[in-house]
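Problem: given the chain below (793 residues), write out its structure.
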Amino acid sequence: MGKLISQVKKLRFQARINIAFSFLLFTTLLGGYALYIMNNSNNNKEQFYNHPLVVNRAINQLKGSVININHWLGHYVTEETNEEIYRLGKIIIFNDSIALNSIETIESHYLGNPSDVDSLKITYQDFRNFDEHILFLKQKNDIPQAQDLLNQLHESKINNVLSKAEIISNFTQYKAQEFFGNVLKRENERIHYFWIIIAFFILLALFLTYYVSRSITKPIKKFVNDLQPLYKSENVVEIINLKKINEEEILTITANELKTAYQRLDDFKLKLEKKVKERTRAFKESEAKFKLLFEKSNDALLIIKNETFIDCNDATVTMLGYKSKKEILHKHPSELSPKKQPNGQDSYELAIEKMHRAMKEGSQRFEWIHRKANGDDFPVEVLLTAIVNKPNEEIIYCVWRDITERKKKDLEILEAKNKAEQSWNYLENIVNNIGDAVLVKDEENRFELVNNAFCNMLKLERQHIIGKTLAENVAPEEQEFFLKIDKQVLTTGEESINEETLTLKGEDIKTILTRKTRYVDKDGNKFIIGVIRDFTERKKMELELIKAKERAEESEQLKSAFLANMSHEIRTPMNAILGFSDLLNDNELDQEKRSEFIKLINEAGNRLLQIISDVVDVSKINSNQLLIELDTHNLNEIIDNVYLQFSIQIKSKEVHLEISKALDDTLCYIKTDKTRVFQVLSNLIENALKFTHKGFVHFGYTIEDNMIAFFVEDTGTGILEKDKESIFQRFNQGSHEYTKASKGNGLGLAIAKGLVELLGGSIWIEKTSLAGTKFVFTIPYVKADKEQFTNQL
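Solution.
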């Protein structure tokens, strides 16, 4: 292995790169070809494998589903019970979904003529349409016609579907071998083309490898050829032939020649130092010229060495008001300053800090307070520039510029700014304390100013409003209306007052009153000043007042109707009592008639007593004087008593009573007001019997969480959907013609609702239709034991 490496090192760079690059390219192409062959082979196998298995499985599922639909459809047509019809319908739908999924699978995997699949889809759709027609006839209860169609045409429809499926199955079974041969033929052709492409890419790779290697080695050769003039030192015995040695040897010789060149540069350095000395003398001459300029400058110029002044110009003496430079020199900058600077920092410490930073960073510019000879302080702008930065020799060039006048002007500007800010703050406080929303917009509809009320109305921070249009925050139609009004105000200058709606994202619609005017500044820029008052609550109050007025009027109408109805309800039994009472005075009246009249008088008296009882209950409920007496009772006994009461009343009607109990007789003891529960159930059952002429009335209870849910369900005339809520209002008998024509005072359901709420529950209509109604009410489920019930007795 070591011998092989040494042999490689003897090769030139170009040969090494050619070998490495060719080997890498060959390996990559070989791996790519292997992956291609494997992938292509797997795809062909998978395609051939999927065709017969997947399609045949889907065909079998389709056939089975069609046969199942045919089987269950016959049962569906002849079935009479709703539960069984519903179950058979779900089975038919389930098999239909399997058939549709099978057709989709066939369509996605079938490799034959697509028209075969299209024909199958059309035939199956015709089969589905025929089945749906039979289902429709069944729903219309036209069973004879449905059965006739089923017997006459259904078998032919099934055979059409099965024959179309058989065509596809035959292709899958008998044509797969032919298809596989074609696939293999195409695969062999692809392999031939692939070898041609591989040969082309190998040639191309060799060409690219040669080109890349030449592009790498050519600059190296150029570099060596350019350095050939260096190969003239005494260490080189003979002229070197570069073509006979490799690049490593060439670079070694070049490094030796560069060492020789560096020695020559060292000799050049000595000559350069001599020239520097000559230039230093010239610099001193220029320094004298600088000194002249130093003295003639109008700014105060100073030289600081080791933190004390060693020189200054005449302008410095004049600025400070001293008589000579001697009074300034050899002093620390803090000695010509007040004890503290305006920021409160000690002048000595701050001066040290500034000089150190100038030495470190090269320069420092800052403002400073100096003190004149007469004790007056004045501001200067100081520029410190480091000249020499050596240990024990730190020299700084210092420039002072008197900025007293500039400070005065800055102070005047600052005072004017403060006054403007005070005025602005005053105006802003006034605007922000206005209860109505205030805004100012420019001609581009961008907000320039808004107050707190505006921010609160939009529920946005001020920084999220200023400079924006907020077009995305309101509904498009509202934004269009706002822009139209703004454009009108900007154009005409006329004030606009409008009642508008404002719809924000995730918020309710607000009703606002906007007042907008135009303002034009001295530069001709136009602005809109707007004031918005949110009177959504006021609008709601107005609407509530209107609704309350309508409810009061409706209540008054209901009350008038109730009084008229009540007058009729009371007068009718009273007339019966008085009339039949007079007839009883007839001595010639036989005993049978007399008994019948007494019975009628008792019925009229009971009706009159019920009317009076309902009015008293309504009055007590409204005045919160009706008391609920909770005690231990047997719930099943209450249900049985209700059943017993009404089973006697319905003997003459074609209606039967049904009851349901959720608890066993030993576990049905609860705490409640038996009288009120009995009263609510009686009211609901009495109403159910009143409007049910044929069918059943089913009542009972279930246990739901911690509540007892009572229900009363009938097959009567029903309640209209629009009367679902209002039916529980006093004096309301609904808008159905049957309810209006029936006997009643419109208080029964209102009393039931009031009693249920006093018992701690709620009442509602769970089902409303013209074929029956189901009332449900709940009361708390407070368990009690049998011993309490026994002790109570």
